[in-house]
Design a protein that fits this description.
The chain is built from no helices and six strands. By secondary structure, it is mainly β. The protein has one domain (about 1-55): Chaperone, DNAj Protein, Chain A. The N and C termini lie close together (about 10 Å). Bound molecules: zinc ion (ZN) (2 copies).
Length: about 55
């Protein structure tokens, strides 16, 4: 059986998700968000940042 790959539904294939700490701002009270390093996005854990998941 071959495994099928599907676009990750958690990140929509982006491989990144909005940072749960800062809500995508990249900052928390004028400080750079430590969780996303100020990017506002973090690697999707469901697909390890690939945007794809195996069924
Ligand atoms: Zn953040
Ligand atoms: Zn994902």
């Amino acid at each position: 059986m071959e495994k099928e790959m599907h676009i990750c539904r958690h990140c929509g294939g982006d491989g990144k998700m909005t940072c749960p700490r800062c809500g995508g701002d990249g900052r928390i009270q004028k400080e750079t968000c430590y969780y996303c390093q100020g990017e506002g996005k973090v690697e999707c854990r469901a697909c390890d940042g690939t945007g794809w998941v195996e069924d």
